[in-house]
Each structure stands twice: as C-alpha cells, then as structure tokens.
Amino acid sequence: MKIKIILSLCLFIIFLPIVVFAQTPFIYPAPDGIITSPFGDRVHPITGNTRFHAGIDIGYDYGTPIQSAADGIIRYYGPADGFGNAIVVWHPKLNMGTLYGDVGLIQGLHEGQEVYQGDVIGIISPVGDSTGGHLHFEVHLNDIDFHVNGAIVTDPLPLLEGLKLL
Known about the structure:
The chain is α+β, with helices and mostly antiparallel strands. The chain has 2 helices and 13 strands, in the order αβββββββββββββα. The protein has helices at residues 2-23, 157-161; strands at residues 34-37, 40-43, 50-53, 56-59, 65-67, 72-80, 84-91, 96-101, 103-104, 114-115, 120-124, 134-140, 153-154. The strands form 3 sheets. Strands 1, 4, 6, 7, 8, 10, 12 and 13 form an 8-stranded antiparallel sheet that branches. Strands 5-11-9 form a 3-stranded antiparallel sheet, with no helix packed on it. The longest helix is centred in the first third of the chain and has 22 residues, at 2-23. Residues 4-22 and 162-166 have low confidence and may be disordered.
C-alpha cells in the first residue's frame, strides 16, 4: 500500500508541469508588460464611471509588437468602437477566442488568416480611449462574432500566469 502511495505521488510530481501547461495555453502577448487595469468592475480611467472591464489592460511602450497568444485564425481585424482597432483570434483547438484592443494594425494581415503562437499581429499605438500605451486583452470562452453581444469572458490573467511556472 505504501509503495502505491509513493508511486502515485512521484507520478503526480512528474506530470504536474504537463497538467499546468494544459490549463494555461496562452503566452503573454508581449514581454515585460505591467497590469494597469484588472478584469472585473472598475472605475473607468477616462469617464470616471464604474463599469465591468471584460479584460485586462497591460501597459507597454508605444511601438511594442503584440503576439498571438496561441495558434488560431484571425476573425476580426480592424476598427472597433472604444478600442480604436481590435484583433480577434479564434483558437479552435482551445475552443476560446482572444481579443486584442487599443492596437495598431499591420499591413498584410487580414480576417481568415491563420496565425501561430508568437506571430506578431499588431503593435502598441496611440489609438482608442486610453491614458497611455497599453493592450486591452480579453479571453472569450465561446466562438462569437466580435460585433454580437453575448461573449462569455473570463479573467485572462490566470491563463497567462500559469505558463510562468514552467
């Protein structure tokens, strides 16, 4: 009985990093960012109104390249109210989507294009409603058109932080 317990614990410790990786599929859209606004209710920095923030804001310098957090297909690439521009990537293997808001677009990228984790898909630019250079990053738990209400969002931070454990 003791051998089975010890063996089970050893296997758990060996395979724990694989389990953590399986639960955290996203890389940071750019390195060295600082979370400037969390997911959830917040006071909007421009309007002063309290409202739900469907993603996280990560502060970056203007000109910082933004990478796709995982393999996927660009579903939307263009102007978006409140974001200046937005990029929506659907990740079919994960059954999730990511939204990158307040970014500059790169010529040559388009809707329907396949992208891979780490591909540069945008750049931090002074667009949208903001108080400085940042990326608005959302994770959608369903496949929904960007322009349709009903996206089920979740806090992206736990999906990003886990990768740093490996």
